[in-house]
Amino acid sequence: MARRGPRNAGEWANWAGDQRCRPARVLRPGSREELAEGIAAAAAAGQTVRVAGSGHSFTEAALTEGTMIRPERLSGLLDADPASGLVEVAGGTVLADLNRELAALGLAMENLGDIDRQTIAGAISTGTHGTGARLRNISAQVEGIELVLADGSVRRLSAATDPELMGAARIGLGALGAIAAVTLRCVPAFTLLRVDAPHPREEVLDTFAERAEAHEHFELFTFPYDDGALVLERNRTDEAARPRGRAAAYLNDVVLENWTLAALAQTGKALPRAIPALSRLAGRLASGGRVSDRSDRLFVNERRVRFTEMEYALPREAGPEAARRVVEWVRSNRYPVFFPIEMRVAAGDDAFLSPAHDRDTAYVAVHQYRGMEWRPYFEAVEAIMDDYDGRPHWGKRHFQTAETLAPRYPEWEKFQRARDTLDPDRVFANEYTERVLGT
Fold it and tell me: Is residue 121 within 8 Å of 91, Cβ to Cβ?
């Protein structure tokens, strides 16, 4: 039997702590059968169902007053064929755990985002991506999905047997069913060389396209009140891995990137007038470095400082201009934001609701420290992104609705047909899906 929470299950909060709800019931199934049983019982009782994952979405995606599924017991590799690179993994598997299990098999994900605390189901459902001009988001690595529907039945989807349903389910926002398992296409394990270096921001933006093409994985961070940018370049290497020692890694990943950032952000929160000076100091502290290690270890970053975030996917050529406009808005409005702007790239793909659907993409992300006002900043950024037909990251804050989003997705109606097929009674709905997908 699935482990059930009390009828008053208490409050659930996301990682950032700014999305909260009180589900009527929380289920922690330990098998596909328990997941199916719990969902069918909730639907029969007239409750809606949402799967919470690890809570790394900044949106209201997981919120529910009905039944919340916590999938942490649905974890681990279910099957693996190292020769073909195909692995089946339970939907609640956290990426960090998956990466360790893949490494033991001599395998790796071809690309990852910059955190590894998400579940695989949550990562693909929201369109999580890494960076790489010729690499697609994580959902593009999916070969099959095992979906539990509202009546407890199990639907196994693949591009070969259900191309339209797979096109929808690869980035489904949790609105089609609960993902019990995912079949991934992996690659042989590889080593990355990561080089971080500061450069003048205008120089980097002027050469954005060339830099993106020159490196397998390219991204940049820039503080709006500073004129520099920290550029991260990662490329495969045949040289032996030379990871940082434990002390050096702790100094860089925890002390500098988290404790120091937290201290500066707290100071800026207390003294907003000091934020421009603090930003310039943070820019000077971003001195860069060089390290080689197992790929997944160099894709991810330690994230201990809490914040909220908005990210938009734009036609790649529009990225630098949009970022410049964000910097100009912050400066001209003297807006108190200390956190940097982040830019990444991705290849176009064919998932119906992928923010990178059918176009090579630049991602522009903005952040605000937890507890500081963020809405005017994010509203202004969204207005800029709208000028470029921007598509929001599904797991990050935005103010779009189904009416404003539909024209931006050529396959919108195909997704809606798949939703009608898989969840006609809208058991897997909440206020967020109603806002962004319609009823």
Answer: yes
Q: Do 90 and 173 fall into the same domain?
A: yes
- Torsions phi, psi for 210 (to 5 deg): -65, -40
| 206 & 293 share domain | yes
Are residues 306 and 363 located together in one domain of the fold?
yes
Domain boundary among 188, 204, 227: 188
- State the DSSP string of 317-382: GGHHHHHHHHHHHHHHTT----SPEEEEEE--B--TT-TTBTS-EEEEEEEEETTS--HHHHHHHH
Judge whether 381 lies within some domain.
yes
The answer to whether residues 116 and 93 touch, using CB atoms and an 8 Å cutoff, is no
pLDDT average, residue stretch 408-416? 98
Q: Is residue 49 part of a domain?
A: no
Confidence of residue 9 (pLDDT cuts 50, 70, 90): low
Instruction: Please tell me the distance from the alpha carbon of residue 252 to that of residue 258, in angstroms, as a whole number.
Output: 9
State how many domains the chain has: 2
Return the structure tokens found at 309.
């975030």
From residue 98, alpha-carbon distances to 114, 145, 428 in Å are 15, 16, 26
In 3D space, the residue among 302, 199, 288 whose CA is nearest the CA of residue 257 turns out to be 302
Nearest to 233 by CA among 221, 225, 250, 242: 221
**136 and 251 assigned to the same domain:** no
- Structural domain of 379: 191-392
Q: What is the DSSP letter of 23?
A: -
Stretch 408-437: mean pLDDT = 98
Give the CATH number of the domain where residue 98 resides: 3.30.465.10
Reported as a single tens digit per residue, the pLDDT across 278-316 is 889 888 877 778 999 999 999 998 888 899 999 999 999
Residue 113: half-sphere exposure toward Cβ, Cα within 13 Å: 25
State phi, psi for 202 to the nearest 5 degrees.
-65, -35
Q: How far apart are CA 250 and CA 229, in angstroms?
A: 23
Cβ contact 326:224 at 8 Å: yes
318 and 209 Cβ atoms separated by less than 8 Å: no
**pLDDT recorded at residue 118:** 96
Q: Do residues 359 and 315 touch, judged by C-beta distance below 8 A?
A: yes
Same domain, yes or no, for 152 and 264? no
The reply to whether 358 falls in a domain is yes
Average pLDDT, the chain: 94
